[in-house]
Amino acid sequence: MIRVLLADDEPLVRAGIRAVLAADAEIEVVAEADNGRTAVELALAHRPDVVLLDIAMPVLDGLAAAAELTRTVPEAGVLMLTTFSADAHIAAALAGGARGFLLKTGDPRELFAGIRAVAEGAAFLSPKVAHRVIQQVGGDRMARAERARGRVEGLTPREREVLALLGAGLPNAEIARRLHVVEGTVKVFVTSILRRLDVANRVQAAIVAHEAGLL
Fold first, then answer.
1. Residue 104 has what pLDDT?
2. Beta partners for 28?
3. For the range 134-139, what are the long-range contacts, defined as Cβ-Cβ under 8 Å and sequence gap of 24 or more?
4. 119 and 29 both lie in a single domain
5. With contact defined as beta carbons under 8 Å apart, do 50 and 4 qualify?
6. Distances from the Cα of 152 to the Cαs of 67, 98, 157, 193, in angstroms?
7. According to the UniProt entry, which residues carry 4-aspartylphosphate (predicted)?
8. What pLDDT is attached to residue 35?
9. What are residue 29's phi and psi, to 5 degrees?
10. Cα distance between residue 118 and residue 160, in whole Å
């Protein structure tokens, strides 16, 4: 069972999302919040697997809440679900530790896929958001690719294998299966990769993998 905390300041929106999630027997909404501060408090109390966060909320907005959740409840994966798709919002959410970014206008199947991916320790961007991220990092691609290759050269061959699979969006369990190792070993590799690449999360590491041509 994937335990989800839902945070949105609009009751009707929360009701709609809750109704959509009820269609999946493997997802359970364990708590709801109408502001970012309450979302952090409830996450500390319920320890959910995934926190669905809107950006525009009172008391503490979703971006600030995402950063605080990453610091105080790191085991809870933060998945933004919002109508805001400006580059600045996407960049701030990912820099703050969010593992995924979805749009409320997207297909409900993206919501299910995003929740599962984040619960499994992977990252997930809706197709429209992924396109924006690629555009944002696409300037001066040759120079970026050269820098990315230089950063990847500092990894061991096995770390490069893990990074390539991470960049493909695979969760730790699937990476472990493909490399015939235990999941704990993959977690150690991922931690080392993030440190060596000097990136904050799996999304940023995946961007490096794409730019370096590992996929």
1. 87
2. 3
3. 134/210, 136/87, 136/90, 136/91, 137/207, 137/211
4. yes
5. yes
6. 27, 23, 10, 9
7. 54
8. 92
9. -85, 110
10. 22
Q: 187 is in which domain, residue-wise?
A: 140-211
Residue 8 is predicted with a pLDDT of: 95
Contact of 203 with 125, CB cutoff 8 Å: yes
- Domain shared by 115 and 160, yes or no: no
d(CA 163, CA 157): 10
Segments in the chain below pLDDT 70: 85-88, 131-142
Boundary of a domain, candidates 103, 135, 167: 135
| pTM: predicted TM-score of the whole model, two decimal places | 0.66
- Give CA–CA dist 81/107, Å, rounded: 12
How far apart are alpha carbons 122 and 162 in whole angstroms? 13
Whether 148 and 130 map to the same domain: the answer is no
Q: How is residue 9 annotated by DSSP?
A: S
